[in-house]
Amino acid sequence: MPHRSTRILSGLLACALAAGSAAGCAAPPACPLPAPVPSAPGLDSHNARNALDWDGLYVGASPEDTLTLFPDGRYVMSGARAVLPPAGAFDWDPSGSRILLPAGDRPAAVFFVGEGFVRQICPQTDPGAEPVYRKAGVAPGHPPPGTP
């Protein structure tokens, strides 16, 4: 007869596997977006969209994982992490700090835009990981900053 702790661990493992397989079949939850906040007099209204040089080429953990953002609202994505359509148009959320990339019949992928990086914040593609893409250059066909 198996030891009691072995039976408990076996039961926990079976429950975890069942929950994991059920969760794997479910559609990913929609990403909550912040409600627009009205500007008050004297408050700084700068955000990523209007204050950062956000357009350009971003590279993920692997050099093959790239995301290029163009100033006209288009993107191109490639590499193993590219679970979205490889090219398309993106939208800004009301805060101006996040971009929304369409994901076909699934909720849009949400990326936080920071100084020199973009981070996928929703939906999570890997448990416990937020894919980060670091800025590596300007978008093709776009002049470098400071060029007349």
TrEMBL record:
Keyword Signal included in the entry's annotation: yes
Signal sequence extent: 1-26
PROSITE patterns: PROKAR_LIPOPROTEIN
Domain of life: Bacteria
Keywords linked to the UniProt accession: Signal
Protein name in the entry: Uncharacterized protein
